[in-house]
Amino acid sequence: MTQEIYDTNNIFAKILKGEVFCEKIYEDSFVLAFNDVNPQALHHVLIIPKGAYMNLKDFSEKALDKEVVAFYKAIGKIADKLGVTDKGFRVVSNHGKDGGQEVSHFHIHFLAGEQLGKKLV
Ligand code: AMP
To answer: Domains in the chain, please, with CATH?
Structure first.
């Protein structure tokens, strides 16, 4: 089995380092959230941990409890901030090649602001 290594130059790592601009929606000590450059819904926010985790499995296995808690709490805070908590939203995480993951820094897509179709992101 090949052991994947986190690429410190992936685009989200560059955003975290401040080398690439993002439209920030939310930030705390462990989490950053920003608008997707290619939105698939009225609100399309990417939520990422600040730690270097490649995907959902990597994050769930290696992240500290406080990182995991902050990450999941951020979802509700972002929903409130965007005013979509009552109307609803969707979160999606693509994992690996078959999952369609393009950026190998763990992230979830937060989609809202309109009636969402069956398949998105
Ligand atoms: P995924 O296919 O789940 O890895 O999703 C990667 C997402 O990152 C895509 O929806 C892209 O549109 C988005 N993306 C790529 N580069 C940037 C960037 N510089 N700023 C914001 N979103 C980006």
So the answer is: 23-112 (3.30.428.10)
Query: What letter would DSSP give residue 80?
Result: H
With a 6 A CB cut-off, is 102 part of the ligand 1 pocket? yes
Give the pairing type, strands 24-27 and 31-35.
antiparallel
pTM of the predicted model as reported, rounded to 2 decimal places: 0.96
Hey, whose CA ends up nearest to atom 12 of ligand 1?
Answer: 38
Would the CB of 94 count as within 6 Å of ligand 1?
yes
Q: How many residues does the chain have?
A: 121
CA nearest to 52, candidates 15, 94, 102, 1 = 15
Cα–Cα distances (Å) from 77 to 21, 31, 74, 96, in that order, read 22, 12, 5, 27
Please list the rounded mean pLDDT of every run of 10 residues in the chain (121 residues).
83 98 98 98 98 97 98 98 98 95 98 90 76
